[in-house]
Amino acid sequence: MKSKWSLVARGRLLLTLYSSLLTALLLTGCSEPPLYQQQSYVFGTLVEVSIYGKDEASAKGATGKVLADFDRMHSMLHPWKEGTLGGMNEVFARSPEQAALPPEMQDILEDATRLSAQSGGLFNPAIGNLIRLWGFHDETFQATLPDPDTVRKWVQAQPSMNDIVMENGHYRSNNPAIRVDLGGYAKGLALDRAVEILHSAGVEHALVNIGGNIIALGQHGSRAWKVGIRHPRKPGALATLELADGEAIGTTGDYQRYFEVDGKRYCHVIDPRSGYPAQGVQAVTVLIPKGRNAGVLSDVASKPAFIAGKVGWQEAIRQMGVDAAMLIDDQGEIQMTRAMKKRLTFQAASPKQHEIP
Asked: CA angle, 297 as apex, 271 and 18 as ends, to 5°?
């Protein structure tokens, strides 16, 4: 088998840095001060907080609170290291053992369970053992295919968020195959929490970017915040759009974490029905209107559509309550809803486009 891991390893950090640079250029190209920006590395990706209209000391203080909360959440929700969720996963594996329910986790797990049911199970945070089997739990994953029988074993075990029981201040699992990985949820939750923190700090205008999951507060001076959607196969932006106050945007792509074996790409988005990485799609982007959980939905809603693929993605976004969405298939052709098309400004030489109702 011919592996392209070395190319991927070098490219992953460059893609992450490029995405941040693109956003920064779009934000600051014509900006007037005061615009405060600070970057960090959390949730396995580059994050950036941009605050407009505050003096540097106030903006720096507010940003510090946001980044500190990101660090706290990263430790709490990491599925593989020692911490809150990591410890819960060890208890799940010893089903029917139970333990005291940690603070915050009941609301988070109940919300993730609700969204999993809404997606028809395509968004399934309980398949952490499959993610580990494919190696995507590790920052330095290898370009190797897992044993098909082991894949089949974890699929047949049918781990589900519904197998988690939380009652009387304790939790347990009805299925020892559960290992919860909130990688498709945590960044969105962090965006929603960032909005709360910034509002509490008196910040009215800001943009928070966690590895391409972005939420806007207010606007950038006299204009809306402008962001770019990365082309999944070429350097540069495929399209740009302006985000209104409270809107969030998120993309799931096969270029974010992947490896190639014998010319076939295997990305980090696992189809829980087959146990194998989803195929046939390069990227799905969703635009979420202002709401209490806009950040969470921007993170979660693109996953079921990506897994459902070219045939099922429209039904998947409908189930998630999303009106504005775009899919780029494995041939580079674009399908997008009318609501999304109205918002996008495509760059030169954009791929073939198909509008759907």
From this structure: 80
Q: How far, in Å, are 208, 267, 349, 351 from residue 282 at the CA level?
A: 24, 10, 18, 13
Which residues, other chains included, contact 108 with Cβ-Cβ below 8 Å and sequence gap of 6+? Answer: 77, 182, 185, 189
Q: Please report the pLDDT score of residue 350 as a whole number.
A: 67
Would 267 be classed as within a structural domain?
Answer: yes
Owning domain of residue 248: 13-76+185-356
How many structural domains are present in the chain?
2
The values of phi and psi at residue 188, to 5°, are -65, -40
d(CA 105, CA 178) in angstroms, rounded, equals 16
Both 59 and 197 in one domain: the answer is: yes
CA 102 and chain centroid, separation: 24
Instruction: Summarize the chain as % helix, strand, coil (round to 5).
Output: 35, 25, 35
Note the pTM of the prediction, 2 decimals. Answer: 0.89
Distance between CA atoms of 340 and 322, rounded to whole angstroms? 10
Model confidence at 166: pLDDT above 70: yes
**Angle of helix 84-93 relative to helix 56-77, nearest 10 degrees?**
10
Residue 252: its H or E element: strand 248-253
Contact between 306 and 281 (Cβ < 8 Å): yes
Spatial distance between the Cα atoms of 341 and 337, rounded to a whole number of angstroms: 6
pLDDT tens per residue across span 216-226: 999 999 999 99
**186-200 and 56-77 helices cross at what angle (nearest 10)?**
150
DSSP letter at 268 equals S
Q: Are residues 211 and 299 in the same domain?
A: yes
325 and 192 housed in the same domain: yes
pLDDT tens, residue by residue, 239-273: 999 999 999 999 999 998 899 999 999 999 999 99
